[in-house]
Amino acid sequence: xxxxAFEYYRPKDMAGVLSLLEKHGDDARVMAGGHSLIPMMKLRxxxxxxxxxxxxxxxxxxxxxxxxxxxxxALVTQTKIIDHAGLAxxxxxxxxxxxxxxxxxxxxxxxxxxxxxxxxPGNDMPGLMQCLNAIFTVIGTDGERQIAARDFYEGAYxxxxxxxxxxxxxxxxxxxxxxxxxxxxxxxGDYATAAAAVQIVSGGGACVSASIAMTNLSDVPVFSAxxxxxxVGTSVDEAALKAAVTAMLGDIDPTEDNRGPVAFKNHVxxxxxxxxxxxxxxxx
Amino acid sequence: MSKKMHVKLKVNGKEEEFxxxxxxxxxxxxxxxxxxxxxxxxxxxxxxxxxxxTIDGKSVKSCTMFAVQAEGSEITTIEGIGxxxxxxxxxxxxxxHHGLQCGYCTPGMITRATKLLEETPNPTExxxxxxxxxNLCRCTGYQNIVKSIQAAAAEMNxxxxxxx
Amino acid sequence: MxxxxxxxxxxxxxxxxxxxxKRVEDARFTQGKGNYVDDIKLDGMLFGDFVRSPYAHARIxxxxxxxxxxxxxxxxxxxADDLRPLGLHWMPTLAGDKQMVLADGKVLFQGQEVxxxxxxxxYAAADGIEAVEVEYEELPVLVNPHEALKxxxxxxxxxxxxxxxxxxxxxxxxxxxxxxFTWEAGDREPTEEVLANADVVVEQEMYYHRTHPCPLxxxxxxxxxxxxxxKLTLWGTFxxxxxxxxVVSLISGIEExxxxxxxxxxxxxxxxxxxxxPGYVCSVVASIVTGKPVKWIEDRMDNLMTTAFARDYHMTGxxxxxxxxxxxxxxxxxxxxxxxxxxxxxxxxFPAGFMNICTGSYDIPTxxxxxxxxxxxxxxxxxxYRCSFRVTEAVYxxxxxxxxxxxxxxxxxxxxxxxxxxxxxQFPYKAALGWEYDSGxxxxxxxxxxxxxxxxxLRAEQAQRVADFKAGKTRSIMGIGLSxxxxxxGAGPVKNCDILGLGMxxxxxxxxxxxxxxxxxxxxxxxxxxxxxxFAQILxxxxxxxxxxxxxxxxxxxxAPYGLGTYGSRSTPVAGAATAMAGRKIxxxxxxxxxxxxxxxxxxxxxxxxxxxxxxxxxxxxTMKEIAFAAYNQAIPGLEPGLEAVSYYDPPNMxxxxxxxxxxxxxxxxxGVTDIRRFYALDDCGTxxxxxxxEGQVHGGLTEALAVALGxxxxxxxxxxxxxxxxxxxxxxxxxxxxxxxTDFTVTPSPHHPIGAKGVGESPHVGGVPCFSNAxxxxxxxxGNKHTxxxxxxxxxxxxxxxxxxxx
Lengths: 284, 164, 808
Prior knowledge:
The complex is a heterotrimer of chains A (284), B (164) and C (808). Chain B has 164 residues and is α+β, with helices and mostly antiparallel strands. Chain B is built from five helices and five strands; from the N terminus they run E-E-H-E-E-E-H-H-H-H. In chain B, helix 2 (89-96) packs across helix 5. The longest helix of chain C has 28 residues, at 571-598.
């Protein structure tokens, strides 16, 4: 498997990246770890005449934790997420999810930016970022802008990022309460059959707020406000779980693939969601 | 064909410089340009890990990286891990505990394991199985690979203790 | 001379039979110094690769190579038209059919080879492939063999006469244009009669899905035609290098002595590397055309889509028994999907391999088997993936039929097996479908297995779990998978077994060096089995020289004696026997030399570990080392100098390894996720040469069985597109999904094998697949499951539970 020929660039700064993007338009793609893009290029399913490697562009490899938010640079790898002590304290759902992505080698290379920006419905981080209500920072020749994760995904591989923009960081409001990232897959290295990200805040034995999103059950990650709302004010009892699952099932739209038919995916989505909620609630 | 680019790497302690097409995958650079044929090609889609090398302290599947991306980096392959007069404890342990059969996955497996033991010097079986899950083996069923890595860890820890 | 070393130490020094000798192969493999085919680099070497069909069935209207020839670095593009004048556009298959080397007017499966692009490097070859323009006209696609047998669509026009009649195939008359053969074993009428009058009869359809051996190294070769000397050298991933040499000679017209075939280190075979593939032929032709070495290496998608699928058997079993559970008859019908060409790798007289071992380990007096081979728009192959020819299919059938019968009889499946086992005293046992089982002690093995796992305790635990599930206390159920298998390996007696007319003997040639070390060469080729280690052990015990002083070489047809290669667990039963026999010839001559040196009559010396001693005077002896030196350096009246031997071994029978496996599995009925809690494997492979290697083989075979049973498949959609073309979707388990296995053994030596060994590499796969499958099915038995097809991946298990109302 040999990719088609391409020109390779490794600019030292964002200005260099942006000028290349401006020049080559949608013939150019930026790449971080490359573990989504390179296999597609090798299979000749992605045609990339101009490949812009971001690795030398500074300022995108840090994790900054402030009082009310966490900023993760686009080039932060899954391994760094897993190993980061501050993050384990502030937002443990991130490492719980990252550990369920691909395998050790891929996690050394795979980045948060690549995972969220690619728009692959199979990726885990997009769903997680919906749950966490993250904001993505993108930069273009006209400057920086912020896009809410929940507004970012438009379809499979189609996002609100323009072709000449680069996703530089993810900003996460400080997560509160209990958390869980639950994923069913066929084996290590597989995408999710279904995965759920849940954050729940409890107060006085009842659910005060809940944020719920799921992965690989539609052509975009699915944030279900109704599923979260179904838990609020309840003790997360059977009736509430049922209501949350019903709400989520109304929002997902799985398709049949080698992981199974639609009926199975709907069923597993419900089961995984229940388990995620239960685990998050037990930690709330 | 596109313009060739200048690439400079350090592989197993040796400086290498060459001109390469950007699409040249690192695994081919190693195997065909530098005649370092320990790392193998198994799946080409970053699932099997037969091509695993260490790049700047990370375990990387070299079939999913272009040589130009690795410009400026330090790479270690199975050839740089030990030599006939001074084998790495993992190389000894894989032989002692029958951790290989056809040998095709072995270079990637051992290379990955060096990094695993660096990060987790005293791993549980579960940690080994999880930490080695990026390397496929079709022959051994992994049981003796796990055993080999456990044995090497014990050996390395004992040596470290003796040195202290 | 005082002997300070004890006899026991002398035995240990040999590292012979029965010792867990560390592998001599490992030094190079652990240091990255293996030499696999893709490691070969020759001056001026070119790269060849295929333009492949995106369609499963299409007419080729045109192939335009011109744009490809304009790609820098592309030197040639071969099409069927280029090969036709050489008569190489088609090639014979191992099954007596023929296969297109490059698409000749049409394609019959997705991924079929259409054109071969030869270029200076792999990059130019890849670009050249993109540039070749092929115009296809799509034709109706047949992916189901039952439908293919009814369809008007003709897949193989070349096998229909001009008047529309159907000439006989390689295995007799054909009943439909998409039909390949009918093969029968046993007695139809008597079987029907017993079935019609039996107390209890059950019939069960089952589909053993298509899968693939998928060794970690794909197939490939380097062909190098030396036009100066007229010699062709072909390095490649060949499980049968000598057979490849003969085939290349027959189809190319190059005399066999001018062809050297070399199998270097092979990165796993499992049956994938037995056949001859278009890549080999095209590389040879390209090397002849260009005068340069040409390398062809499959990528993983090519490998999964085109070379060597396994299984794809649609089976119907019918079994009868008395009320007490004594089996009285078995009938089995198979519709076998062979894909676009019949390229099965079976002995010629056995187009369905040894499927007629399907009476299993049971004393079944009457049986009948009928197999129909069918063409479809799928890849050719039908290899024995980690098993002897079609033995996994046979064992799966009988081990499922036993379970289904147990359900019908409301009996415990372990007990049902026990009362039907062939008894120890019945061996050698003549089975209803023709085979003569050489030896066995099934009851002992079974009892040991059930006792070790506390079978009664497991059943009690399972009953409690069922009660808990029904009471709503758990959503997890528990399965106890049982399997008892008998393999038939070591093909085989030349009177029964040949491939393309090549008798399936094997060989060993030994040269003892003057200083008491040796080299032995064999007709087989290791792909990870550790031949260099174990064959030296056999020899060490036979000739009394340390295994560490014996080099084993295989795979170079210029130096190794002719043999049929390594597959179907035939290396130990056949080449291992040849090794022992050649060793005995060495020993016979050594005895004469020893007697001469000791100045006694030949009959007055006897072999003792590493020496010949004078009978009754053990202090008088000559070691084999001394004898070796004398053999070369001392003129012995009446004896030629030297110490060499060669043996070509034609086994009198197959060997019949067996085993008893138990799997304990927990299943989440809501997600379909399985968890293997325990796996116990007892294997009886006769005499054990190297227990460490045997254990390793068992671990590996079980893991491949786990994969096949729980998810590994080559799946097609209705248009004949392969849905499982990469390792994302084709299930190879990682360390994380695989349990630890408990291994155990009994030893029932083969009575006809020189050292009593039987072969073991494939047993765990053969016995493992039904064991994993039975564990899943057993978990659902209390809820009404009778039979559900593999693979038991998450969604299919979920579907089982759904159909049984377990989600209501």
